[in-house]
Amino acid sequence: MKRAILLRFVVILLLALAVSGAFSYYFIGRNMLAHDKSAMLNTIRAVDYALDYGRDLQEQVEKLHAAAMDENSRITVIASDGTVAADSEIDRPDVMENHLEREEVQEAFAKGTGSDTRSSESVGESMLYVAARSTGGDYVVRMAVPYTNLIDYMITIFPVLL
């Protein structure tokens, strides 16, 4: 009898956790992601405004990043042919692979802005990428920050709850 009651309690608890997790993901997680993207676009627009595309972009990006950005964020300036013109984390962006096939870069050149979440090849962790076409249109300014969505958190916490 006690075992049956305990089993029902555990089943109800797991269902409640599943429902609350789904609710959190669909309502809270999406709003947080939209807010993060919006804040990153504002930062990208400020960086674009501050850049003089006729001068050394690498030097400018390094100075802007050091003066005004979090150490976990990354700024990359990508030319219309996909070559990396500047990057806040890489000293020699000219040796980086072509970025034209990246989803957020393609969206930014086509629609003005773009975003993607994926594992970074160079950093080795999940990142949120947001990109916007420069005011002149010849470049895309992209910002990246570490990103872990709610599903990743729930997967990490779930075994602890059991």
Write up this protein:
The chain is of the alpha+beta class and 162 residues long. It contains 4 helices and 5 strands. The chain has a 5-stranded antiparallel beta sheet. The model has no long low-confidence stretch (mean pLDDT 84).
Span between termini: 22 Å
Radius of gyration: 21 Å
Largest sheet entry: 5 strands, antiparallel
Derived structural class: alpha+beta
Number of strands: 5
Number of helices: 4
Name the shape in a single word. elongated
**Strand line-up across the major sheet:** 2-1-5-4-3
Mean pLDDT: 84
Percentage of β-strand residues: 15-25%
Note poorly predicted spans: none
Order of helices and strands: HHEEHEEEH
Give a short summary of the structure:
By secondary structure, this protein is α+β, with helices and mostly antiparallel strands.
Architecture blueprint of SSEs:
Elements: H1 2-50, H2 57-68, E1 74-79, E2 84-87, H3 103-111, E3 113-119, E4 126-133, E5 139-146, H4 150-161
Antiparallel strand pairs: 1-2, 1-5, 3-4, 4-5
Features:
single chain, alpha+beta, five-stranded antiparallel beta sheet, 5 strands, 51% helix
